[in-house]
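Q: Given only this backbone (118 positions), what sequence would you predict?
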């Protein structure tokens, strides 16, 4: 699982940094920063999910514990996004692009890993 996360983070950096630099010229620094923060939050959320699975798997009531940790993690992400958007530091469109890039990379790496298993 650790190798999968490293490939996602590497791919994210290879895509998001040039995309963010390109958007800096067309959409401004807030949009560009939103792309980077969205990607970083997506990767951090993936790492947090992997951590909670490793920590609680095999324990009693593992699903309930992972649910509580996930809700807490999403609450922190939501609060951070609301504060940054309200302060005018980021744009939601940029964050959405950053999250989407990470989501697509997770799907791609998961598909490759599943095909390798067959």
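A: Predicted residues:
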């Amino acid at each position: 699982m650790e190798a999968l996360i490293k490939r996602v983070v590497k791919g994210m950096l290879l895509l998001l940094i040039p995309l963010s630099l390109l958007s800096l010229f067309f959409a401004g620094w807030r949009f560009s920063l939103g792309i980077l923060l969205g990607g970083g939050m997506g990767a951090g959320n993936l790492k947090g999910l992997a951590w909670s699975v490793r920590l609680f798997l095999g324990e009693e009531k593992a699903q309930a514990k992972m649910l509580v940790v996930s809700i807490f993690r999403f609450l922190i992400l939501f609060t951070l996004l609301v504060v940054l958007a309200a302060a005018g530091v980021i744009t939601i469109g940029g964050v959405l692009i950053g999250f989407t890039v990470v989501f697509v990379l997770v799907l791609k790496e998961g598909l490759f890993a599943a095909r390798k298993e067959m």
